Amino acid sequence: QVRLVETGGGFVQPGGSLRLSCAASGTIFSLHAMGWYRQAPGKQREFVATITSGGRINYADSVKGRFTISRDNVKNTVYLEMNSLKPEDMAVYYCGHSVFPDRFAFDSWGQGTQVTVSS
Prior knowledge:
The chain has strands at residues 3-7, 10-12, 18-25, 34-39, 46-51, 57-59, 67-72, 77-82, 91-98, 106-109, 113-117. By secondary structure, it is mainly β.
């Protein structure tokens, strides 16, 4: 059974930075695509960034140039480096584990980590 644990959320002022981590267990991590999604209060969960097992990356337009997704297949961890944070980035961030190496059908999600952006 896949288990995902997100860490790294917190409070930051606009313009600040945070680095989220998602540690995976119970999976051959290197063979699976991973993704970051977020959900703000009263809104649906939305795509933030994804990375395939081969390292192909996609970002939501709203975070391009500010966020960076990466993965470490030795540490079984996917990261989301977030810079120039805006109040509209405030949400609970979730990482997802895909069934496939190069497509996105998520079979497991972490518990989420809260990111608060406020002055």
